Amino acid sequence: MSSSPLYYAKILLFGEYGIINDSSALSIPYGNFFGSFKFFPSDSATEEQLTSNQHLRQFTDYLKKMPVTEEFFTTFDFERLDADIARGLYFDSSIPQGFGVGSSGALVAAVYDNYSTNKIDPDTTLNINNLPKLRHQLAVMESYFHGKSSGMDPLICYLKIPVILQSGHSLNPITLPESKAGSSAIFLINSGMPGKTHSMVTLFMEKMKNEGFRKLLKNQFVKYNDACIEAFLNGEISGLFKNLKKLSRWVFTHFNPMIPEHLHSLWLQGLETNQFYLKLCGSGGGGFILGFSPDFDKAHHLLKPYNPEVIYRF
């Protein structure tokens, strides 16, 4: 294998959980974290490298058991993959695991890109018709890590461009409004603890068994989420923050167990002061929290103790 390309982290700006229930979603690559395949020296491997190598072997064993069907028609060069694992292949990644920024998605993208024998190539064979097929294949692969995957994380990590999923079905690459030195900002807050994606998704699926919750999700969460995406892409700042406040309050009320307890007061402070609004970044339970502020400089004194990291200004 020649030098491996980089696979960036991703940030799901909108659509967490609702993506499983036909809401729209907007996801972007995040270049501050990334991973790539490397080989470790046989005589001086670190424990971290050995662990990554072992996880690759287990993931490969899982892929070998996946039946090739009309929906999942990906085949892999397992002979080459097994040989590379045997000589020290590992995924060298700065993407923190369990933080909602696509650590498993980047690994899935890397395996698919480097070892699929019939991959859909972004530069040559990708088109609007096979984009959903690509997402489905990557979702099947990532299900190894989380039990259920939308496929959006590895898709963003693989394509390395922003993608919008509309009403749970229609996928389209998009161009974000140009980032500029405006007063508004999107930022990340590190909760200081990894989330447990599998347990959080399981909790959500349990809630989905309740008809009343399903109606709330469809009639309120999806409505606010989709309105946020539309306003953001159209540059409608007032409409964006109006719906962000509704979305943030809804998440605090109905996804409360997914918000780390030590951030509850900050979450409510944003809703009370209207200086910023917080939402989940990924499945929650830990990891990063995503924030939006109409005037970040004004809100910074409230956020400063939490070391916010600005990822986009507008």
UniProtKB/TrEMBL annotation:
GO molecular function, one term: ATP binding
Pathway: Isoprenoid biosynthesis; isopentenyl diphosphate biosynthesis via mevalonate pathway; isopentenyl diphosphate from (R)-mevalonate: step 1/3
SUPFAM superfamilies assigned: GHMP Kinase, C-terminal domain (SSF55060), Ribosomal protein S5 domain 2-like (SSF54211)
Pfam family, one: GHMP_kinases_N
Keywords: ATP-binding, Cytoplasm, Kinase, Lipid biosynthesis, Lipid metabolism, Magnesium, Nucleotide-binding, Transferase
GHMP kinase N-terminal domain location: 89-159
GO biological process: isopentenyl diphosphate biosynthetic process, mevalonate pathway
Signal peptide coordinates: none
Name used for this protein in its record: Mevalonate kinase
Record organism: Schleiferia thermophila
